[in-house]
Design a protein that fits this description.
This protein has about 220 residues and is an alpha/beta fold. It has one domain: 3-Layer(aba) Sandwich (Rossmann fold), CATH 3.40.50.150. It is built from 7 helices and 9 strands; from the N terminus they run ααβαβαββββαβαβαβ. It has a 9-stranded mixed β-sheet, with helices on both faces. Strand 4 and strand 5 form a beta hairpin. It is globular and about 45 Å long. The termini are far apart. The structure holds S-adenosylmethionine. The site of S-adenosylmethionine (SAM) has 20 residues, from strand 2.
């Protein structure tokens, strides 16, 4: 996906992916996922997801990475919290206490940027990308994360010929093929979205599924 595509979506307020409330899977699975409660969380391709406020309010330092500046500005404005803006290359950082949004390209991140990260929350990041970019995304993510970092991943699947993403359909098999070499993969839930589900109806799909995975690095450590 070209950067221009996402900038246009934000400029035209075409952000149907934005939930505006805490993701139900995050809410449900987070306690088992983050037992300490103060782990640093990385949120790739974060948009202005309010999930980041939810994580921060629970005591997690959060780093989100987002290409578009409107998203970063809106996030703090809508959260009624001022951000200290630190212009820079390759990221302009919007900082509010231990909640930081880095405005720039995910692919510019280097391992040192994420050295304090313990957990990753991926909702609508992997599925926002077309197939070839998904491989690059996973390779880059795995390369920049500290060794023991676990990932909470939410995916969406539907019949390939019924819609052109984003959001793209990512099968459970693809999750295994993308992450299986480096991670033990546990499926935490599978939800079937029937024809009357608003997303399925809006996109004219015959149905869809959402899966939640817990990915644990399998490297000996
Ligand atoms: C489908 S949205 C999901 C946003 C968020 N995860 C959520 O749940 O609302 C994907 C987001 O990724 C951002 N994005 C796309 N490519 C990116 C990149 N290379 N680096 C950083 N952000 C990117 C887009 O601007 C968009 O806000």
């Amino acid at each position: 996906m070209e950067h221009e595509y996402w900038h246009n979506r934000w400029a035209n307020d075409e952000i149907g992916f934005h939930e505006g409330s805490v993701n139900k899977f995050l809410h449900e699975h987070w306690p088992e996922f983050a037992p300490r409660g103060n782990e640093t969380v990385f949120v790739p391709l974060c948009g202005k997801a309010v999930d980041m406020w939810w994580l921060y309010e629970r005591g997690h330092p959060v780093i989100g990475v987002e290409l578009n500046e409107i998203a970063c500005k809106d996030f703090f404005e809508e959260g009624n919290a001022p951000a200290n803006v630190k212009p820079g290359e390759p990221f302009t950082r919007f900082v509010h206490d231990e909640l930081e949004l880095w405005c720039g390209d995910f692919f510019q991140l280097v391992p040192d940027d994420l050295r304090h990260v313990h957990l990753v929350y991926d909702r609508a990041a992997l599925i926002a990308l077309p197939p070839t970019l998904r491989q690059e995304y996973v390779q880059h993510l795995v390369a920049i994360l500290p060794e023991k970092t676990q990932i909470l991943l939410v995916t969406l699947d539907y019949q390939d010929d019924e819609m052109q993403g984003p959001p793209f359909n990512v099968s459970d098999a693809e999750v295994h093929s993308l992450y299986g070499e480096d991670y033990d993969i546990e499926q935490l839930s599978l939800q079937v979205l029937t024809r009357d589900h608003p997303f399925v109806e809006r996109k004219g799909l015959s149905g869809a599924t959402e899966s939640v995975f817990r990915l644990k690095p399998n490297s000996p450590s």
